[in-house]
Amino acid sequence: MEAAFSFQHFLPRVQLSTGDTAGIAGEEIVLHVENIYEGLKTTYHVSAGLWNYGTDFQAYLHKEVHEYISAVVTKIHEKRKGKVEMEDQVLLLAGAMTMVYLKETYSIELREVDQERLCKALLPFVDKEGKQCPEYEGLVLFFPRIKKRMSDALLKMIKTMAKDSTKSCLFYCVPLHHFLLGKYVPYQPATAKVNHDDTIPEWWGIADFSNELSYFQGKSKWDRNKTEILEALVPYFAVDFLLPRTFIASLRLQRFDEIDLELIPTDAILAGACYFIKTITATFVTENAKSLKRIFSNVSSITLGEDS
User: Fold this and answer.
1) What pTM was computed for the model?
2) Which one, of 239, 102, 254, lies nearest residue 171 by Cα?
3) In this structure, what DSSP letter does residue 264 have?
């Protein structure tokens, strides 16, 4: 039908590099797509009455929106595999964040490979020497009027993955989520606060999705093993000091035996152990004494190694 053709024809080109002067980025894309969508909806659904409900019209254009998002995600993935100039890093991030917004707004379910790529595209480019994160800091400039809508869309995606899937790539979204809410400055040291047993789990970085994360924690199996996930996340612990805490908060006590505790900051390990000791029954602690003993043994070894 011509409505689908018109939608495809007028979809904007996403700018993913400074050399691409034909594309647009950030908020402009969101407003452009929304204008096209609402214009076609008014013409074909409201005026012509071709669909009884707005949801029917959305379902009709589902394929076109899905293909648009998937194509952009693939381009971002390919570009991130090579060397990316600093001025282009924020464009790739803005492009990925825009696709998150469109995905959540139009209820698009991506293929697993595309979902993984989209989440990975939200990770920062690690700067071990300069310890800067210009793409995160510059991102807000691309969404001056709709920053809240963007952060809400990201949180919605995190919650959905945590509750309704076993996709561990949800952790790739966490550093940007924390940053957009102003919970840290990239590469800042961990705060000295020890309020990890507060009712609202701010210390753990999960205050906004703790209920959904509890579902994820309770799942018997994730889409990959914990060691693989942890090793993928370690480079970003320095960027977002809350990230290792969020990872620990997603584990059941028995899962601590599956990971290398030396890769995780000591404060997160101890806080996790304290949580289980304080909140679980004495019988449970007795049954899991071996796991707890290993945790404290590892912490002691790490601490002694730091002091020597």
Assistant:
1) 0.91
2) 239
3) S
